[in-house]
């Protein structure tokens, strides 16, 4: 069997969740696979960037000092002046 680019022994059989008879079997199979992966010291790489990509209409204001480790969406507020002019600015995009 081949999983995550690894050749695992045939004894692993089919690991598709819909082929397992019950939740207990799924948990047992998942934990066993986890032990094999941990024993092999495999690393699953992730891709990270140092900035945020967010699309939003320009109607928000933000604090002058922003959070260091997050985007801080919960600190944004709607600027009434920007919100009032938003429809006109959208029409200008056409």
Tell me the major beta sheet: 2 strands, antiparallel
Number of helices: 2
Shape call = elongated
Order of SSEs:
EEHEEH
Based on secondary structure, the structural category is alpha+beta
Taken together, the total number of domains comes to: 2
Termini gap: 53 Å
Q: What percentage of amino acids are in beta strands?
A: 5-15%
How many beta-strand elements?
A: 4
Q: Report the helical percentage.
A: 25-40%
Largest sheet, order of strands side by side?
1-2
Low-confidence stretches: none
Average pLDDT level: 79
User: What would you call the quaternary organization?
Assistant: single chain
Characterise this structure.
With 94 residues, this protein is α+β, with helices and mostly antiparallel strands. The protein folds into 2 domains: 2-39, no CATH class; 49-94, no CATH class. It is built from 2 helices and 4 strands, in the order E-E-H-E-E-H. The chain is elongated and about 65 Å long. It comes from marine sediment metagenome. This is Solute-binding protein family 5 domain-containing protein.
Short description:
This protein is of the alpha+beta class. It contains 2 helices and 4 strands; from the N terminus they run ββαββα. The protein has helices at 23-39, 80-91; strands spanning 2-3, 6-7, 60-61, 77-78.
Features:
single chain, 94 residues, alpha+beta, 2 domains, two-stranded antiparallel sheet, two-stranded antiparallel ribbon, 2 helices, 4 strands, 31% helix, elongated
List the helices and strands and how they pair.
Blueprint: E1 2-3, E2 6-7, H1 23-39, E3 60-61, E4 77-78, H2 80-91
Antiparallel strand pairs: 1-2, 3-4
Protein name: Solute-binding protein family 5 domain-containing protein
Organism: marine sediment metagenome
